[in-house]
Amino acid sequence: MRIYKVGGAVRDRLLGRPVTDIDWVVVGASAQDMLAKGFRPVGADFPVFLHPKTGEEYALARTERKSGRGYGGFTFHASPEVTLEEDLIRRDLTINAMAEDDQGLLTDPYSGQKDLEDRLLRHVSPAFAEDPLRVLRVARFAARYAELGFRVAPETLELMRQLSESGELQALTAERSWKEISRALMEDQPQVFIQVLRDCGALAVLMPEVDALFGVPQPPAHHPEIDTGVHTLSVLQQAAQHQQPLSVRWACLLHDLGKGVTPEEEWPRHIGHEHKGLELIKAVNERFKAPRECQELALLVGQYHTHAHKAQELKASTLLELLQSFDVFRRPQRFEEFIAACEMDARGRLGLESRPYPQADYLRGAASVARAVAVQPLLEQGFKGPELGEALRLERLKAIKAYKEQQSS
Ligand code: ATP
Ligand code: MG
Predict the structure, then answer these.
(1) Measured between alpha carbons, how far is 108 from 27 in angstroms, rounded to an integer?
(2) Ligand 1 pocket, 123 CB below 6 A?
(3) Is residue 100 one of the residues assigned to a domain?
(4) Is the CB of 7 under 6 A from ligand 1?
(5) Cys bridge to 251: 35, 209, 341, 397, which one at CB 3.0-4.6 A?
(6) What are phi and psi of 99, to 5 degrees?
(7) Over the stretch 157-180, which tens digit does the pLDDT of each residue have?
């Protein structure tokens, strides 16, 4: 049997980027040979094994054929006769279809090295169209390598466009899609992921609610970039530049969905978009089965981002309601993430990228005085049950009123 490094490890070494996980392909071996060497099988009918010591993935060289819709609709053929070239041709991009032996000798039948030099993301063969997930993967690699000047080859973008129009994208499971989306959002240039999906028509299929934001104007006084889609991409870019966690990035992407359904007569104003966006955010959340903290934050940011921007103008009672909506007394971290997303929203505007956002500290201050109200004295005064809750609310209100006065003096 011959063993080669493949995929990301080869690509990233040639790019001079750190290699995190190594994928291996094994040529000239059967499943029995692998088991005999102590490898552990990953799945019952999938020719992938884990190394007994390193735990790295070793896949038997295989060919694939599409036999139905979705990823379940693949027939794998792994046998000792399958050649390295046959295995490499089923891979998505030429830069991912190179192999390296233990002497460092490169096998590159599909010109991956040239495409690396030319900074091109190019599909290996027309079989690319057999797995619609590849549309998301290419967009993710475009985001990851944007900084290095990579772009999607025109003929690959064309294939991605055909795949988007064919209805195949709908066959993707929520789990497979979310894995790509969440990884793409955590790249340094996540806005490129969304842009590439839009360029090939996939965004209109996967997230029509986000796609609908492009071409929708906003008031130039607050939004010099005017276009809501452009704004959304900038907010996402800000979130990445400030190294925000996934939940914040997800909330940034979805915060303005309500603006996509404003009747044209009302443009460029979007009164009530916060509330109108909620059902759209919910739909996107559920479509991809986003993790709970992502779902919750996206809804809260959608509903309350304008509150944050106007923080200093809010009445004490409204401020308190805001804090209560976030359950800030028990979950201070989520409120921090809300503030972060709102700050990214304020900065994701043309020419305003480094504006100060005093609302952030103002909100933090209000949360901290409200949280500092002690329950013990109220208990000692004999309050309990609903009366205790009400007494606590009044004390917190008093604290916030005092805070407001002190802030404005
Ligand atoms: P990363 O740095 O994100 O791990 P990677 O290229 O190693 O990038 P993996 O998902 O680990 O990506 O996959 C390893 C290799 O398997 C890829 O380089 C590619 O050759 C192939 N591959 C993975 N998923 C697909 C797919 N859906 N279609 C075609 N080839 C794929
Ligand atoms: Mg990998």
Answers:
(1) 16
(2) no
(3) yes
(4) yes
(5) 341
(6) -130, 155
(7) 999 999 999 999 998 999 999 999
Mutate to test the pocket of ligand 1, among 23, 116, 123 (most ligand atoms within 8 A of CB): 23
**Pocket of ligand 1 contains residue 94 by CB under 6 Å:** no
Q: Ligand 1 center to residue 98 CA distance, Å?
A: 11
Pocket residue to mutate for ligand 1, from 96, 150, 160, 186, most atoms within 8 A of Cβ? 96
**What length does the chain have?**
409
How many domains, the chain? 2
The pTM assigned to this predicted structure is 0.95
pLDDT digits (tens, 9 = 90+) for 325-368: 999 999 999 999 999 999 999 999 999 999 999 999 999 999 99
Query: What CATH number should be reported for the domain holding residue 99?
Result: 3.30.460.10
Domain residue limits at 74:
1-110
The finding on whether 56 has its CB within 6 A of some atom of ligand 1 is no
Q: How far is CA 405 from CA 310, 359, 366, 376, in A?
A: 16, 16, 12, 26
Residue with the nearest Cα to atom 11 of ligand 1?
A: 8
| pLDDT of res. 72 | 60
Is the bond preceding residue 268 a cis peptide, omega within 30 degrees? Answer: yes
